[in-house]
Automatic annotation (TrEMBL):
Region feature Disordered, mapped onto this chain: 132-156
Domain ABC transmembrane type-1: 53-406
Membrane-spanning parts: 57-77, 89-110, 287-307, 328-349, 387-407
Entry's family note: Belongs to the binding-protein-dependent transport system permease family.
The keyword Transmembrane helix appears for this protein: yes
Protein source organism: Streptomyces pactum
Compartments, as annotated in UniProt: Cell membrane
Name of this chain's protein: ABC transporter permease subunit
Membrane topology: Multi-pass membrane protein
Source species, domain of life: Bacteria
Keyword Heme among record annotations: no
One Pfam match: BPD_transp_1
Length: 416
């Protein structure tokens, strides 16, 4: 009598849906034609579903392992500091955020534009710290200017460099933000025994300027590398000054002047985090951000129950902190670590929200997982609830071994 309401609720919410899913998986898309195991054959032969299975395997292996490892590190390292509670609160706080909200957050974090995406803002900052940024991306000579373009993207000045004669090198196509505060270009003065010239933006605001001529008010292109090349080798190199002028030594005479492609390459724009090759690791990173705090709290609770006498005895016997951690702390925490890993494995097998929100439409197929494929097969554009039910049954079969292991572990703990 007392169990009847609970059994009725369990049957309505668990047993009936599972039974109906198994039954529905044996019928076609309309639900009227019996197809037997054909839907299961499609599950194992469809490329999209195979990709989902492969990604689920990656999720099950990587996400619980990384989240548990980080939780263990956080729990151990914060055990002896005063601000441990505050740190644990900050790490655990993402658990209060829904998967939907976390997905929206990390969709912005992984934006390709460094001005919007935090991940690429950091990546570009670090890259530009150790590598020179192209001074004028996209700049190029005007058609008919005489400057020749090489296959590698560099530009060569016609003729040979002559000492005592100034060479004008006009360019167009520079971006406004790159020349906004530039000085006015100045014609270089000829110097005896040296090769001089000016590189400038050949554009007069308001029009009226002459092509290839240095008109008043035209801007200098500072920081442009100019090379003197003879027989395929660079014999001299200079960088334009703030007024656009440059000076090469006398050995550049008779060589050909070249503006390397590095002056005009597009700047480094970061990593394509949501591209086909990185979309799954990127989404796993967002999951770890959420669930590392969960792992840390459980492990910290288990760590609090570890007998301190054992740890002190190991230290007295000469064990290093690493040996104490590896040979004493981790074995004693094995039951707690098992709980965390199994819980996270069950959780990632049904991951859906993060993948659906973070992965853009162009790479969603590359980030596909079983729960997302179940949704798309059952309620997407090409609806086939027979295949969707087959995927759900397959997902249930994948969860059962993990559940069986968890039940056996709980029974062993009770016997102790």
């Amino acid at each position: 009598m007392f169990l009847l309401p609970a059994l009725a609720l369990l049957g309505a919410l668990v047993v009936y849906p599972i039974g109906y899913s198994v039954w529905r998986s044996l019928f076609d898309a309309s639900g009227d034609g019996f197809v037997g195991i054909d839907n299961y054959r499609e599950v194992f032969s469809d490329d999209a579903i195979r990709t989902a299975v492969k990604n689920n395997v990656i999720w099950v292996i990587v996400a619980p392992s990384v989240a548990t490892a980080l939780g263990l590190i956080f729990a151990v390292l914060t055990e002896r500091v005063r601000w441990a509670t505050a740190f644990k609160l900050v790490v655990f706080m993402p658990m209060a955020i829904s998967m939907l909200a976390a997905g929206i957050i990390f969709r912005l974090v992984y934006e390709q534009d460094p001005d919007r995406g935090v991940a690429n803002a950091i990546t570009v900052t670090v890259h530009d710290t150790f590598a020179d940024r192209p001074p004028f991306p996209g700049a190029h000579p005007r058609n008919g200017s005489g400057l020749g373009e090489s296959p590698d993207g560099s530009y060569t000045v016609p003729g040979q460099a002559r000492a005592g004669a100034a060479q004008l090198v006009p360019l167009v196509g520079a971006k406004r933000q790159d020349i906004g505060g530039a000085q006015e270009a100045v014609a270089a003065r000829p110097e005896a025994g040296k090769v001089t010239g000016t590189v400038w933006f050949d554009f007069t605001r308001g029009g009226g300027g002459r092509h290839g001529a240095l008109d008043p008010g035209e801007k200098a292109l500072a920081g442009v590398t100019v090379e003197a090349v003879r027989d395929g080798e660079v014999v001299a190199r200079a960088t334009t000054r703030g007024d656009g002028t440059y000076t090469l030594p006398g050995k550049a005479e008779g060589a050909q002047l070249r503006l390397p492609a590095a002056n005009f390459d597009e700047p480094y724009n970061g990593v394509d985090w949501l591209g086909p090759s990185l979309v799954t690791p990127a989404i796993i990173g967002s999951y770890v951000w959420m669930w590392a705090g969960f792992a840390m709290v459980l492990i910290a609770a288990g760590l609090a129950s570890v007998p301190r006498e054992l740890l002190e005895a190991a230290r007295v016997d000469g064990a290093s902190e690493w040996q104490v951690f590896r040979r004493v702390t981790v074995p004693l925490l094995a039951p707690v670590l098992a709980v965390v890993v199994v819980t996270l494995m069950i959780n990632v097998l049904k991951i859906f929200d993060l993948v659906y929100i973070i992965a853009p439409g162009t790479t969603q197929d590359d980030a596909n997982v079983l729960a997302l494929q179940l949704f798309q097969s059952s309620f997407g554009t090409d609806v086939n609830q027979g295949v969707g039910s087959a995927i759900s049954v397959f997902l249930l079969v994948l969860v059962l071994p993990v559940m069986y292991f968890n039940v056996r572990r709980i029974r062993r703990e009770r016997r102790r």
